[in-house]
Design brief:
15 helices; Spore Coat Polysaccharide Biosynthesis Protein SpsA, Chain A; eight-stranded mixed sheet; alpha/beta; 2 domains; about 550 residues
Length: about 550
């Protein structure tokens, strides 16, 4: 027999919560209770045998009632802490699931919109069905109330990370259901079947005053999306501990825009395997580059294949603020390039400007006309910005902070071999400084790749200069170290090694002769120590 699993998230309503749980305790097999940002004593009832108690923050709000969805098997019922459930409630909800062959989501509360776009999620609904009032017949709804919901877990599985914004569980479930062509049925019931426990404040009271995000999300679900031309390009190597937080922040920042997110993996199988475990939005595309040659040729490649006329380069260990895409997109209507201001995690600064070189928005035609980045291991973003400044184009430095920069010991700017005071970085700085004229590369340096289907199947795409057979061969060997045949072009991996060995074996220079190399190495050690003390791994559960 399938288990009956009741799930609830509660915030600062401990007395009401106990009344709710007692009304349904004898109707189910287990109850998952999430106490959001709880403080104070824990009532003895919450330690009852059927109850699994979890302490959470309030970052997902009511969506924490779906925290255990992926791990559960059986009938999944979600309830609210301001309702009293009648005897036989669970039996009734499960019987309605079975009536629809476990192929529908069942609820007692819902709403429909007759036309889109809507101007307000809470005010625009043409049809409203309340769990507290009479509903004469079963009716299909676009959004169901998750406080009175039931479905079989074979129908829907979602990770808690899929709920990007808090206290919008009804909308998120509506979105997931529409994506999977699952109907939500508000089933018949009589008035006062469900009883309400009076509260001082509710999610509705707070959200109805300002439902801008709810409205944008609802419109986007039904295809009414503001057209913003931006392709977000994110190269990554071995940052799995930061990657999901980064991706979610980008998704939050473009919730009402029809843009694409292109992630390029720089030869790290660990990262590839990790991304294949995530459920990513349809506008997120993932590409695997077989060798670890640095982020810049990846940026060039993804810029070339991008569909938008505007590009936004972002780092995989940073986190966007919700208004970043909007600000960059609007800025590119007037400026050639937009450089966003950042703040560092923990509030501490390593000094210098608050406008990084590697994170910026730019018009695609300008970027490609300059042949993009040099295919170096590091420092190519500073080189590109230097060339852009030479063109005297219009550049916007945003007055507001648009993202959080994460500094950690494994980043290119801090590693011993590639850090700010490394001989290799100093060499690239000299190459950039000594350039003549416009200084652009002679061509756009790109690389071969495979596109990864996150459903765990692989689709092959190729760049023009490679034959399809060679990429298929690469695909067959992607889990193995690959020996690539030499091409009739510069092997930048070898160049980087040669340069590094030359700088390592070079005789020490006199003091002041090369300030980049002769910086006190103790400065770097102090930076590493500070970083280890201040690492922020994000709000993982």
């Amino acid at each position: 027999m399938d288990k009956r699993i009741v799930n609830i998230a509660s915030y600062n309503r401990i007395d009401s919560l106990i009344k709710t749980l007692k009304s349904i305790y004898n109707q189910c097999d287990e109850i998952n209770v999430c106490l959001n940002s709880h403080s104070g004593d824990i009532p003895e009832f919450l330690y009852s045998p059927k109850i699994n108690l979890t302490f959470t923050d309030n970052s997902k709000g009511d969506a924490f009632k779906f925290l255990y969805l992926n791990k559960s098997n059986g009938y999944y019922l979600t309830i609210d802490d301001d309702l009293i459930y009648p005897p036989g409630y669970v039996d009734y909800m499960i019987s309605k699931c079975k009536e629809y062959d476990n192929k529908k989501i069942i609820t007692l509360h819902g709403r429909n919109f007759n036309k889109f776009p809507i101007y307000s999620y809470y005010k625009s609904a043409n049809e409203r069905y309340s769990c507290l009032n009479n509903v004469k017949n079963d009716i299909k709804v676009q959004f169901g109330g998750t406080g009175v919901m039931c479905f079989h877990t074979s129908l829907l599985k979602k990770d808690i990370g899929s709920f990007l914004y808090p206290n919008m569980a009804d909308i998120w479930i509506g979105k997931f259901a529409k994506e999977k062509n699952i109907d939500i049925i508000c089933v018949k019931h009589k008035k006062d079947y469900i009883k309400y426990i009076e509260q001082k404040t509710t999610i509705f009271d707070i959200s109805a005053k300002n439902d801008k995000i709810q409205t944008k999300l609802t419109n986007s679900i039904f295809g009414f999306i503001e057209k913003k031309e931006v392709s977000v390009i994110v190269p990554t190597y071995n940052n799995v501990q930061y990657l999901e937080e980064c991706i979610n922040s980008i998704l939050k920042s473009n919730i009402d825009y029809d843009i694409e997110i292109l992630i390029g993996i720089d030869g790290c199988v660990k990262t590839k395997n990790y991304l294949e475990t995530l459920e990513l939005a349809q506008n997120v595309r993932v590409f695997y580059f077989n060798q670890n040659l640095g982020p810049y040729s990846i940026k060039n490649t993804l810029a070339k294949i991008s569909k938008s006329s505007n590009l936004l380069f972002f780092d995989s260990d940073d986190v966007m603020n919700p208004n970043m895409v909007d600000t960059i997109s609007n800025g590119l209507n007037r400026y050639i390039c937009v450089k966003p201001k950042f703040e560092e995690f923990g509030g501490k600064s390593l000094g210098g400007t608050k406008f990084g070189e590697g994170v910026f928005g730019i018009r695609k035609d300008i970027f490609l006309s300059m042949n993009g980045f040099e295919p170096w291991k590091m420092g190519a973003d500073s080189d590109f910005m230097g060339r852009l400044y030479k063109k005297r184009v219009s550049i916007l430095h945003t007055p507001q902070i648009l993202f959080k920069r994460r500094i950690h010991p494994e980043s290119l700017t801090n590693r011993k071999d590639t850090g700010m005071y490394s001989p290799l970085r100093a060499h690239y700085a000299r190459l950039s400084k000594n350039k003549k004229g416009h200084g652009n590369p002679v061509e756009l340096h790109t690389r071969d790749y495979i596109e990864i289907n996150i459903s765990n199947d692989l689709e092959v795409n190729t760049l023009p200069q490679k034959e399809k057979n060679s990429v298929l061969n690469l695909l067959n060997r992607v889990q193995q170290p690959v020996i690539v045949k030499e091409k009739k072009e510069v092997n930048y991996e070898k160049v980087n090694k040669v340069i590094y060995n030359k700088t390592q074996n070079k005789k020490p220079t006199k003091k002041g002769e090369n300030s980049l190399i002769n910086k006190n190495l103790n400065v770097r050690k102090r930076i590493f120590n500070n970083l280890n003390n201040n690492r922020n791994l994000g709000g993982k559960i």
